[in-house]
Amino acid sequence: MNLGQPVGAADAGQRRAAGDVLADPTPSRPRVVLGVGGGIAAFKSCELLRRLTESGHDVTVVPTEAALRFIGAATFEALSGHPVRTGVFEDVPEVRHVRIGQEADLIVVAPATADLIARAAHGLADDLLTATLLTARCPVLLVPAMHTEMWEHPATRDNVALLRSRGVVVAEPASGRLTGVDTGKGRMPEAVEIAELARLLLARPDALPRDLTGTRVVVSAGGTREPLDPVRYLGNRSSGRQGFALARVAAQRGAEVTLVAAHTADLVHPAGVTVRRVGTAEELRQAVHEEAATADVVVMAAAVADFRPVDTAAHKIKKTDRDPDPVVLTRNPDVLAELVAKRRPGQLIVGFAAETGDPGADVLEHGRAKLRRKGCDLLVVNAVGEGGAFEGEDNAGWLLAADGTETPIPRGSKAQLAAVLWDAVHLLSD
């Protein structure tokens, strides 16, 4: 197979003129083929299909015959708005086994079973899905789902390596409950995570190379909370989405990733990532220092509280309390500065700066000053407020390097920003 090459707009136009098989979407609706393999995780493909269609993608579902034993064709047709076929001898005059792959902007196969991965690796084309994979010249994302023993079998590992060598993105599976009483690595990631990877590949087909293999990465994410009493705390608006995206993209690029997560929104743990939960700035500090001792790259994306109360009330402070004591604050340690001071030779330290600008300086000037103060290798500067950076799905900013290089990061998904950062880390590591 020659997979993973993006489809040019001119080529796509010529193919449509030759014979339109997929319903012609508007130019703003990318054409996505959702392949579904015959595993119990096929039920998750319905949620993935819903997320893709509701976010504006034109999706054609191509299941295997085995997949239809888990999910009926009517379900896929109702959710996608397109007919469902499985064989190469259906709609022969339209040559669907060629046209679907030719006209796709992205192919996602979820779940990709061990059998389906083997057939794709060896170029078999005995049904509509495998024939579609052979004709595709767009990015291809295979999302494995199988028992741990199957995932770890040498045959599967060889097939995955072969596909990756050809430019196919084979996602890292999650760990957790499988079928029956079994648990382990091989669980299909959640639909929201697969949809995020799909959006990333549509924006940047080259965003997930395996260039971080052998690299140990630590990422901090979310906002710390400093308790005032058993009910209240000092905190911030960080959702943790950017840190989770950084961890997710790094893992899919081959890194061994530990995510030190403070308080976050209800986010799905990234597949293939070890997660350590913390609450306060001091807890985060301790966890990051422990993990950084053996890390090649440390990314401080968490919003760490600058201050904490000197004293925490043992009981809830009530409105009826007469003359409550004022809240006295003390400064928290500067975790990023500590990491820079303690870094080992060759270790890369990345910081984040959420800035608003003021009468004295704009956001970028504040970021430059912070880079000089902290001494880290890279600093991502975000403008916050009015929907910027915190809580939103997208992000933008600048990537500042210690050598003076400044790279604007245009607005896009937080996974896209993560890909830009890991590109820079890879270049610095070479």
β-strand percent reads 15-25%
What is the terminal separation in angstroms? 30 Å
CATH superfamily of the largest domain: CoaB-like
Which topology of the largest domain does CATH recognise? Answer: Rossmann fold
| Biggest β-sheet description | 8 strands, mixed
Provide a count of the helices. 14
Large-scale geometry: elongated
Please indicate the count of domains.
Answer: 2
* Low-confidence blocks of residues: 1-26
Helix content: 25-40%
In short:
This protein is of the alpha/beta class and 430 residues long. It is built from 14 helices and 19 strands.
Q: Can you lay out the helices and strands and say which pair or pack?
A:
Layout: H1 9-18, E1 31-36, H2 42-54, E2 58-63, H3 73-80, H4 96-103, E3 106-112, H5 114-121, H6 128-135, E4 140-144, H7 148-152, H8 154-165, E5 169-170, E6 174-177, E7 183-187, H9 191-203, E8 216-221, E9 226-227, E10 233-234, H10 241-252, E11 256-261, E12 273-277, H11 281-292, E13 297-300, E14 307-309, E15 329-331, H12 335-342, E16 348-355, H13 363-374, E17 378-383, E18 394-401, E19 406-413, H14 414-429
Parallel strand pairs: 1-2, 1-3, 3-4, 4-5, 8-11, 8-13, 11-12, 13-16, 16-17
Antiparallel strand pairs: 6-7, 9-10, 14-15, 17-18, 18-19
Helix pairs in contact: 2-3, 2-9, 4-6, 5-8, 10-14
